[in-house]
Amino acid sequence: MDAHLFRRFCGACVPLLEGARLAKIQEPADGVLTLNLDLFASRPGFGRKAQLVFRPGHKDPFMFLSPARVAAGRTPSAPVMRLRKYAAGHTIRRAVSRWVERELWLLVSGAIPAGMFGGSVPAEEKVPAAEGDGAKLVWLKLSLREGASLCFLGADGAPLPSEPAWPSRENLGEALADWNKWPVLTPALRRAMKGMDGGDRAALLVDLEDGGGDIFLYSRPGAQGAPGTVEKVSCWPLQPDRVKGLTESVEPDVLGALARAGADLVLAEAERRQATRAAQPLNRREKKLVRLLEKQDEEEERLGRMRAGKEDALLLQGSLWQWPQDFRAPEVQVWGRDGKQRTIVLDKRWTVRENMERLFHSARRGERGLAHVAERRRQLADELSALRRRRDEILLGMVAGPGNNQDVPAPAKLPEVPKHVQLFVSSDGYPLLRGRDARGNLAVRKLAAQHDIWVHAAGGPGSHVIIRLRHAGEQVPGRALDEAGSLAACKSWLRGEERGLVTYCEVRHVKPMRGAAPGTMRMDKVLFTREVNVDASLEESLLPGGTVSGQS
Length: 552
Fold this sequence. Notes:
Largest sheet: 6 strands, antiparallel
Number of domains: 4
Radius of gyration: 35 Å
Strand order of the largest sheet: 15-16-18-17-19-22
CATH superfamily of the largest domain: ibrinogen binding protein from staphylococcus aureus domain
CATH topology of the largest domain: ibrinogen binding protein from staphylococcus aureus fold
């Protein structure tokens, strides 16, 4: 997140933060911090509750305001617990943007002298468990580079907003050559200006100094018109060579654009990292199982040779009359069943009869060993298959791990559903719930989270379908949307049609209609409507493990 983009975010976010209550601080994933906020004033698209999501770091830091709260998902670490102790449960009384340093300072507590900050901040609150001598102001510092920290400062040590110097149009060329003296010429800005002529450079600099303009999102195109995954975000147009294969969209709403970008760049990426880490022990076990299966192949080959010695033993048994009882030789000639003479190699330490007995004994051991190897291979193959399914489910986000902070998560489980609800799994790994009847439609609604996607055939009666999401704001692939829509259409008035229109909206915007038949819903806000194939074969191909959970 470039400093200029951070400035645009702070310009829109700071008015919402001042006066908001900081309810809780959470750590949903490694390197990601969330601040649950009860806003003093609502904003279109956010309401009175929001979540400030914060991912610091030297590489790709990001901060955005999420309209829906992300589940905690894990036990907070000791540093987060300390932040909670001093900052959680307090009102944000002042927000200061030091955007050049990419820092956002939040005043959460402390006895504020009269007249400080122009008298706009109340001074009643006391310092909680003061650190150090005397009264201090408690600031929560959010640095994109260093992370979150607490600062206990006196009234004279309060942070000041960034007011950097800007180069003029005339000396912009000299400033770019000596950019160390101009903090506003950030690395991202210098890269952008490198491919511009002098007029475009000057115009961009003026726009940035004024603090206005649009936000540019660059997304990977989604399937069949579905929203794509945001991969880059900027407050100026990027050069074509940096956005090959991406679709550009211009968003005037700063907070809305960054909320969409943050869901893909921060939340989805954090979930992928967590899933990859959770899958590492399974990967190690998979390698071990593969090695064990290879050893079973080697063992089977050895035991097969032992069992094959039974043929030589039978030939010796039929030819014992030729030799004295104590006869020893390195090899003997016998007639095979095909009528041809055959040479059998013997151990000179034993007689021919003893060699025969040893061959019989070895063949019996080989047969028993082969049966054991077959059973062992079956067990290893079953474990390997189950392990790979579990790993794939983890990587697809189907493992529910709230509160599980261990390397190996609990066994993967699909949602448990009542008998009036059908469970499917999309090709992309999303659990899909469909009501069998009116009772099932009501049950499906109760099983859904507020951010899940509700799917229904447009223009007529039908079953309700829920797409279970991993987190609020997640971008669902087009294939999963089409499969959920097809399942809804197959159990609706569209059954028998080749294609049909299907409506999609968030569960929180679906409400039952008073006085109407059970299961009749109104949609306060529709996400979109799309045409899908009515494919009845999906009802079998999308079943988890070949069965529908809850089916009698």
